[in-house]
Amino acid sequence: MDVSVDRRTFLAAVGAGAIGAMSDEDKAEELEHYLIHKLDDSVMPELDGEEAALIEWDQQAPRPPRGTGNLFMPREEPFAPMPAKPTLEDFFRLRFAPATHVLQSAQHALETDQPEATVMACLLHDVVLNLIKVDHGWWGAQLVEPYVDEKISWGIRYHAALRFYPDESVGYEYPDLYNRIFGEDYVPDAYIREQYEFARQHRWYMEARMITVNDTYGFQEGVQPDVEQFIEIIGRNFKQPKEGLGYDNSPVAHMWRTIANPNRPL
Ligand SMILES: [Fe+2]
Ligand SMILES: [Fe+2]
C-alpha cells in the first residue's frame, strides 16, 4: 500500500480509549475505514497557511459514530439533491464521491485485463462503507445482489474475510500493515475464519480473492480515477432499475434510499 500509516497516527485518529474497547475485528474494520478516509483526503488540493490550519482542525473534528459510514458524519452542508430516478452513476457522483479506493481498485483490474465481472466487483466492493463499516462484506453484497451477476455479489461478500488470509498463487500476502497496527498475534474472529474456509473450497473462490488482490492497488495517494471510464462496464454488468435505485421495490431498495437520504428522521 502506498498510503503510509503508523501506529501512533492511527491510534490518535481513532482514539486510544476507543481502541481499548475494540475487538481485533473491529480494529481491522476501523483501519480499513481510516485508510480509505486518508486516501479520500489525499486527493484534496494542497492548501497552506490558515486554510491548512483549518483543515488540520477539521480532520480532528467530526467522525461518524463507530460502525457507521461517512454519510452519518456531522456536516454543515446539505447533501446534493438526487435525481428522481437515480442510477448507480448518480450514487457514485453524489454520495460515494470521491470513491478513490474502489475506483483505483477497479482501474487496476481494468488495466490488467481482468474479466469485466471482476472490474465491476472491485468498483462496488467497498461502496457500502459510506453507509456502514461493520461486516461490510455482507452488507456490501446485499446492497447490490438484485442488480448484478451472482458471482459479483458472492465475491463482494467474501472479500472481507479473505483479506486476512494469504494466497501465494495470486501473490496476495497478509498485509504487513495489519502486523504493524495490530501486532503479529492478531487472530480474526472465528466466524471470519469459518467464512474464509467456506469460500476457499468454493468454485467461485477466485471471484472474491481477486477483489483482495486489486484492493491492495487501491491505496495510491494523489490518484483520482473518474467513474466515467466504467460507464459502459456498469451498463453491461449492473441491471439498473427503470424506477431508479431506491424506488424499484426490491428487497434492498430501502438501503439505497437511506444512502440517498441519510438524515431523514424516520
Ligand atoms: Fe473491503
Ligand atoms: Fe477495499
Describe this structure in words.
The protein is globular, with a radius of gyration of 18 Å. The protein has helices at residues 7-14, 16-20, 24-42, 49-60, 88-96, 100-111, 116-124, 136-144, 150-162, 176-182, 190-201, 205-215, 231-237, 253-260. 35% of the residues are buried. It is mainly α and 266 residues long. Bound molecules: fe (ii) ion (2 copies). One fe (ii) ion binds at residues 101, 125-126, 215, 218.
Give the secondary structure arrangement, pairings included.
Layout: H1 7-14, H2 16-20, H3 24-42, H4 49-60, H5 88-96, H6 100-111, H7 116-124, H8 136-144, H9 150-162, H10 176-182, H11 190-201, H12 205-215, H13 231-237, H14 253-260
Helix pairs in contact: 6-7, 7-9, 7-12, 8-9, 9-11, 9-12
Bound molecules: fe (ii) ion (2 copies).
Residues 32, 125-126, 136, 159-160 line the site of one fe (ii) ion (FE2).
Key traits:
globular, binds fe (ii) ion, 266 residues, 14 helices, 53% helix, mainly alpha
| Biggest pleated sheet | none
Order of helices and strands: HHHHHHHHHHHHHH
Derived from helix and strand composition plus strand pairing, the structural class reads mainly alpha
Q: Hey, roughly how much beta strand do the residues contain? A: under 5%
N/C terminus separation: 40 Å
Q: Are there runs of 5+ residues with pLDDT below 50, and where?
A: 44-57
Shape: globular
Helical fraction equals 40-55%
Topology, number of strands:
0
Radius of gyration (CA) equals 18 Å
